[in-house]
Specification:
Number of strands: 13
Largest sheet: 11 strands, mixed
CATH superfamily: Dihydrofolate Reductase, subunit A
Shape: globular
Strand content: 25-35%
CATH topology: Dihydrofolate Reductase, subunit A
CATH architecture: 3-Layer(aba) Sandwich
Number of helices: 6
Radius of gyration: 18 Å
Bound molecules: NADP nicotinamide-adenine-dinucleotide phosphate
CATH class: Alpha Beta
Strand order of the largest sheet: 2-1-12-13-11-3-10-4-5-6-7
Helix content: 10-25%
Length: 272
């Protein structure tokens, strides 16, 4: 599911895209209905001392994760609706600094409707926004950081702090041998912020670190019916996982499949 700026939140259910449920088979449903049925809290798969981590990504049929540096051209309306609905169903939304900078992240949930729904369900209005960063080179005018109502956790190994941001910022500092200790950072999100479900929206470098540390429970992958070709410029990735090869390929089990307008939405469980 690609990064999107628009929202389906205030649309009446009959104006929302209906997704065909192919696996498990079922009646067509809206993105919100699907997200509501994910049952992310306290499943038998929940890890005991860290959040349940879902990776939400989009790729073209030939494996491209971005076109001209952005993921937005990959998705359609159904993808955007699912992207926003998923955000409304979790305790925290996390992204790497590269993605936050490129996609100019703003408030996680912008519309009143889903904020109200979360309140009615006993949750905070907004999921905690988590940014993973090494250098803390995050512009204070980034819409997310410029929003005084935003709750943001900066996950870093650095002792530095951001200056000039209006958002309410907390730091999760987890350093080990000069690098970020992601397992410890996620344990702190669980312990200190009561984060039980964490939606990670990439990007490819953060995904690689999470997968290498066996911290991903599910991959939600939108397969966009497009072919884009192209080789990555040096140091960049055009796929959903970047960096060095993983020690061993991570095995996935398909547990869900939706379709809308030739776009496929695959739900994979990561095998232990
Ligand atoms: N297709 C999709 O679904 C999708 C989703 C997201 C992004 N994208 C695309 O991916 C591209 C961005 O890729 P990217 O790989 O650069 O994004 P990224 O993984 O979001 O960002 C990389 C940056 O995140 C920080 N970081 C990540 N893991 C870290 C760790 N373990 N320790 C310390 N810092 C860590 C570092 O930040 P500092 O630089 O601050 O040190 C690093 O430079 C964009 O073109 C975007 O459109 C596509």
């Amino acid at each position: 599911m690609g990064i999107a700026t628009g929202s389906n939140a205030e649309r009446a259910p009959d104006e929302q895209v209906m997704l065909r449920r192919l696996l498990p088979p079922g009646e067509p449903a809206t993105a919100q209905q699907i997200a509501d049925q994910l049952e992310l809290s306290a499943t038998e798969h929940s890890p005991p001392a860290r959040p349940y981590v879902l990776l939400n990504m989009i790729s073209t049929a030939d494996g491209r994760a971005s076109i001209e540096g952005r993921s937005r051209p990959l998705g359609d309306r159904a993808d955007r609706e699912l992207f926003h609905a998923l955000r409304s169903a979790v305790d925290a939304v996390m992204a790497g600094a590269g993605t936050v900078r490129t996609e100019r992240y703003g408030p996680i949930i912008r519309e009143d409707g889903p904020r109200r729904l979360r309140r009615e369900r006993g949750r905070s209005e907004q999921p905690l926004a988590c940014i993973v960063s090494g250098r803390l080179a995050l512009p204070a005018d980034l819409p997310l950081l410029a929003d005084p109502d935003a709750r943001v956790a900066i996950i870093t190994a650095s002792p530095a702090s951001l200056t000039g941001a209006a958002a309410q910022i907390e730091y999760v500092r987890a350093e080990r041998h000069g690098s970020l200790d992601l397992p410890r950072a996620l344990a702190e999100l669980h312990e200190r912020f009561a984060v039980r479900s964490l939606l990670c929206e990439g990007g490819p470098h953060l995904n690689s670190h999470l997968l290498a540390a066996a911290l991903v429970d599910e991959l939600l992958l939108t397969l966009s019916p497009k072919l884009a070709g192209g080789d990555p410029p040096s140091g960049e990735s055009l796929r959903i996982v970047a960096g060095p090869a993983l020690d061993a390929p991570v095995e996935l089990e398909l547990v869900g499949l939706l379709e809308s307008g030739s776009q496929l939405f695959l739900r994979y469980r990561v095998c232990a």
